[in-house]
Amino acid sequence: MERTADYTIQGFIYQFNKTLLEILNDKDDSMISIEGIVEDIEVKTPLVTKAIQCKYHEASEKFQLSTVYKPILQMMDHYYENTTSRIEYRLYAHFPSENSGTEIKLTEEQVKKIFESTDKKYRKLIEKLKGKVDIALFLERFTLEFGLPLTNLIEDVKEALCSNDLPKDSIDELFYPNAIQIIADLSIIHDSDLRKIKNSKLIKDLLHIRKTAVTRWTRSLKTLDIILKTKKKQLNSNLAKNSRLRYFLVSESSVDNFDEEIVTFITDYLNKYHFKEVHDKTPIFCLDCSEEIFHSIRIRLHRKNIKFNDGLVTDTFFDKTKFSLDPVRTKIGKSLYTEFFLKLKRYDNNILEIFNENKCDDFFVFMGNVPKELDLQDINLEQVDLNEIKQIRYIMGMSESYE
How far is CA 400 from CA 36, 227, 341, 346, 392, in A? Predict the structure, then answer.
């Protein structure tokens, strides 16, 4: 199951890279749609529209036409519904056994063989097209091209980024992962009119981004080591400052082994960044988890002698005023007494109000999506979607390795 999931993710990464390459190599600044008319990439020029669908079959030992029946039928169906439109259809498919760049022109006999398929997945399309679509005219507009291996495709993308006058020394650590994330973000927009971008817009956006995206997509890239090292350096600029108010939002569903790891993560953070007298801003840790797990975390922190303010008067009644109080801090001899070391809250509407009313300096969101209710104006947002706590520790400067 894990291998299947990995191939699925790599398939999306392959598609995003091919999309990027089309945009970066477009010298006419054409409007390019992501997830366009026939699924993946649509390059629209005044004379013709080029529709490209990508397929990544790294696990297939040998190319078989049956493997790509579905995209061929989809493209044929679109042609059938738009015979008067000037559209060229290209299927860009990677198979390890085939030479990259080789193009195949299908024959009418091969298409007729597709129509003979008894696979239920294709039944509706076959019934709609068989005997009705002009196969010969469709084949004049259709090309099957065997695509590059993912590693080679990525290298071409990086070269194309350089060719668009982006600084070469920042390609791996900044521009490439952020470009992938831009494409990924566009691909999930519901409104097709908003899933469009030009070369000029992409380059302009990349030049304005100063933080490396760490998301479910960029953590799947082969450049992950460079991305994590870069992110660690970026975060250190503010983590190295003593007096910073920091909020943390951590989701049980986004971090592997959340229940087992979160208490030691909080403890290690306090030992690293909140133990001196000059560390005068009490961090808030907000945990998006079940009540049962949250209750367990409170007990375990208590057992480790980690004093916290959870704003609870009883096990269920939350007092916002109590939660908002800062700890009593005083010097006793050479030791610093602190009433509590952190504020701890389970994620709900109460904490969202507190976040918005009392702005922090740095807001760390360790989850895939930032809650829309948060007012992030005048805040340094650090959204990091890493599912392994050891990687989070590493970029936070709490460990020297993530292996």
Answer: 44, 15, 24, 30, 11
The tokens of 178 are what?
A: 């952020």
For tokens 């993912």, the residue is 150
Q: Is 258 exposed, middle or buried (0-12, 13-18, 19+ CB in 10 A)?
A: buried
Q: CA dist 318 to 339, 352, 356, Å?
A: 19, 14, 18
Predicted TM-score (pTM) of the model is 0.88
| Farthest-apart Cα atoms in the chain, separation | 93
Spatial CA neighbour of 360 closest among 255, 286, 270, 290: 286
Tokens read off for 27:
């010298």
Q: How many residues does the chain have?
A: 403
CA dist., res. 285 & res. 260, Å (int): 16
Query: What whole-number distance in Å separates Cα of residue 154 and Cα of residue 346?
Result: 41
The secondary element (H helix, E strand) that includes residue 260 is: helix 258-273
Nearest by Cα to 158 from 182, 180, 190:
180
Radius of gyration for the alpha carbons in the chain, expressed in angstroms and rounded: 26
Q: Which two tokens stand for residue 228?
A: 């994590």
pLDDT tens sequence across 371-387: 999 999 999 999 999 99
Question: Mean pLDDT, to the nearest integer, of 154-169?
Answer: 97
Instruction: Please state, in angstroms and rounded to a whole number, the distance separating the CA atoms of residues 5 and 355.
Output: 36
pLDDT in tens, 270-295: 999 999 989 999 999 999 999 999 99
Query: In angstroms, rounded to a whole number, what is the distance separating the alpha carbons of residues 265 and 226?
Result: 23
Kindly provide the residue ranges of all beta strands, DSSP E only, lying in 154-198, ordered along the sequence.
Answer: 196-197
- In 3D space, the residue among 162, 25, 231, 188 whose CA is nearest the CA of residue 223 turns out to be 231
Judged against a pLDDT cut of 90, whether residue 2 lies above it is answered with no
d(CA 33, CA 15): 13
What the chain holds in terms of domains, given with CATH numbers, is 2-208 (no CATH), 223-395 (3.40.309)
Beta strand residue intervals within 206-341, DSSP E: 246-251, 284-288, 308-309, 329-332, 335-338
Distance CA(228)–CA(196), nearest Å, equals 29
| Residue 347 to residue 401: CA distance in whole angstroms | 30
- Asked whether 317 and 281 are in contact (CB, 8 A), the reply is no
* 8 Å CB contact between 149 and 14: no
Confidence of residue 192 (pLDDT cuts 50, 70, 90): confident
Backbone angles phi, psi at 51, to 5 degrees: -105, 120
